[in-house]
Amino acid sequence: MDVFVANDTVPNFLFYNLGNGRFEEAALPAGVxxxxxxRATSSMGVDFRDxxxxxxxxxxxxxxxxxGFTLFRNLGxxxxxxxAQAALLSSVSLRYAGWxxxxxxxxxxxxxxxxxxxxxxxxxxEQISSLESREPLLVFLNxxxxxxxxxxxxxxxxxxxxxxxxxxRDGKMDVVVTRLNARPLILTNVTxxxxxxxxxxxxxxxxxxxQSRRDWRTNSRDDRFRIxxxxxxxxxxxxxxxxxxxxxxxxx
Length: 252
Fold this sequence. Notes:
The chain is mostly beta strands. It contains one helix and 18 strands. The strands form six sheets. A four-stranded antiparallel sheet has the order 4-5-6-7, with no helix packed on it. The two termini are 25 Å apart.
């Protein structure tokens, strides 16, 4: 397993695991040290999942206002490309200061979406600029064609942290967000997509490897997704795992 580190106004880090207890930093040759404009951004929240269903995990980063969020598409062969502008993600996020981010299929139609918790660093931004300090939550719905449609969610606030999970076990991903000087919010997913979903719980033995990885494919398209569950003393095991799909029958 490799390690990506989002840095603030300096180049990001990408540490490739050499498999011998050592790591090699290779963010620059991999294309993730800077955004598509060749600039180091105020990188904040980061999440990595397969957004285009090609089997490779992509990277999404939130940034400060006037920078635009970043979307690094994983090209394979240790190479990434910032496609945030073409994906309609960068320009529409310019006015926002993003913090936590999450990549999940919120409407269970087989394509993962992007959630960001936003709020300016300066709580009195209105006094010194045309920007607002309190901002809405954002959901970027994946259209399945390499582009995203932005939708604002909830009242404006100074949002910071976000955690994700199916809290009521209805197959839809819910969100808990924190905000400065206010109580956390629980956002229940009430999307009426009408699509199917599947929950998987992996069982193993104490002496089995720490990480279990499985690949599945549905019959709606060559749509593969990977389940990764880790169990260590200081980590959180993501189980059970829920996944939205257009058609429930598995091919393999």
